[in-house]
Amino acid sequence: MNKKFLAGAALLGALTLVAAGCSSSNGTGGNGEEGGDELITVGFAQTGSESGWRSANTESMKEAFSKENGFDLKFNAADNKQEAQIAAVRSFINQGVDAIVIAPITVDGWDDVLTEAKDAGIPVILEDRTVSASEDLYASWVGLDFEQEGKTAGEWAVENADGSNLVILEGTTGSSAALDRATGFGAAIEGSDITTLDSQTGDFTRDGGKKVMEGFLQKYGDDINLLFAHNDDMGLGALDAIKAAGLTPGKDITIVTIDAVKDGMTALANGEFNFIVECNPLLGEKAADLVKAVLAGEDVEKKTIVPDQSFTQEQAAEVLDSRPY
Ligand code: AHR
């Protein structure tokens, strides 16, 4: 069977399910195997497993795209390598899946494979990060306002640590999360008395954060008194380097991060971090709803932004036990 036919058949199947009133947006309805209906086959190309945030995001996606919710999920994690992620998307196209969901590692480089998916009649939904490719090449995107996250972090830094010497641990080079957070933070500290000593990528990992922070400490020693890490995990890695250098995190060095995962919030509640801007990883349910709506031929929003909060040390201590991830 050719791919266009498969996609068309899948669309028909999905339309039938929706027409039968079986579509579920909260995971409690049933168009799964038990009722004898066909499952919607979805290929999900995840970035990798670089951080606590990523684990929570993967879990949310797997939960939402479950058999009980009417999906047959084909999952691939690309170990943070864009070539591997593109290869996974190509493989989903070749398998003739009904829809593809991508958490794009980097912004650029998606035009060709997205065009191939479009030519095969397979709709693509983006989750988490954005791409620079034309909006015509994907059906919808659900994610976070990374620029605002960076701005919120920068505004807190100006209010609470103006005059500091800053180092920055950047996320994966070329990712929208790193690019937009850098833009937002940079705009917020512009005109302040914060001096940026250095800024390097730690690739959103604990190991990366630790290694880069060790290098910063060797180079600048205790001149550093402010750290902005693009995610909790790099900040957590940096804690080891800071302590090994005989400094007290949260006191000698003010630490601002993004994500608000359990380990980050614990460090914040313990006084080792000073401020966290949340980045909500629970995008699965919305992504699954979008896939069903697109396959049913419904009009969907091109962009859906999930709101984030931010936390001081006191607020982290209050909510720590009730955090879902
Ligand atoms: O794209 C979201 C970012 O990716 C998260 O902030 C980071 O932890 C993850 O790896």
From TrEMBL:
Sequence similarity: Belongs to the bacterial solute-binding protein 2 family.
Protein name: LacI family transcriptional regulator
Pfam families given in the database record: Peripla_BP_4 (PF13407)
The keyword Signal appears for this protein: yes
Signal peptide segment: 1-19
Annotated InterPro entries: Peripla_BP_I (IPR028082), SBP_2_dom (IPR025997)
PANTHER family, per database record: D-ALLOSE-BINDING PERIPLASMIC PROTEIN-RELATED, GALACTOFURANOSE-BINDING PROTEIN YTFQ
Main subcellular localisation: other
Start and end residues of each Periplasmic binding protein domain: 43-298
Top-level taxonomy: Bacteria, Bacillati, Actinomycetota, Actinomycetes, Micrococcales
Record localization: Cell envelope
Species of the source: Microbacterium terricola
Keyword Signal: yes
Keyword vocabulary terms for this entry: Signal
